[in-house]
Write a structure and sequence with these properties.
- By secondary structure, this protein is mainly α.
- It has two domains: 112 residues, no CATH class; 50 residues.
- 76% of the residues lie in helices and 2% in strands.
- A two-stranded antiparallel sheet has the order 1-2.
- The longest helix is centred in the middle third of the chain and has 27 residues.
- It is globular, with a radius of gyration of 19 Å.
- It starts with a helix and ends with a helix.
Amino acid sequence: MQQLNELLIFIDNHVGSSQWFVFLLLGTGLFFTIYLRFPQIRYFRHALKIVQGKFDHKEDVGETSHFQALTTALSGTVGTGNIAGVALAIHLGGPASLFWMLMTALLGMTTKFVEVTLSLKYREKAEDGSISGGPMYYMKNKLKLRWVAVIFAIATVISSFGTGSLPQINSIATSIFTIWQ
């Protein structure tokens, strides 16, 4: 277990905790926002119509409606960090942190838009009629990097153990410990 912990710390020190990683994420969002001419603003009204079901048809291929696909995508995106992290950021950074959170959210919307669009475009239909998609499918089908897709899929499964209910349990336990201490 100690070796796994050291490996995760090594990866975090070289990727997640590096300052270049933040600039890479924000730069990617800024690039796509400018390249696609602000889709998070231009398509907002259209997005509301999709969520309301105005484009749903009974003969459409797939197992989920547009609304179900949206809520599924959001459930994988919005988590404890978006709740506890916002409170901590405002506590540490004051009101100005809210401005920067809104700016990064605006750029993050475009990044999510591109990710979901590519996932839908390069999804696959199985023999039983079910449809599978996600980042690993456009890595495999468009970029022709099957090994990267496999690593991504494995990393997603492994990270789901730490990002599932563990942060919520930790937040609850820490709160209870602080209150009863």
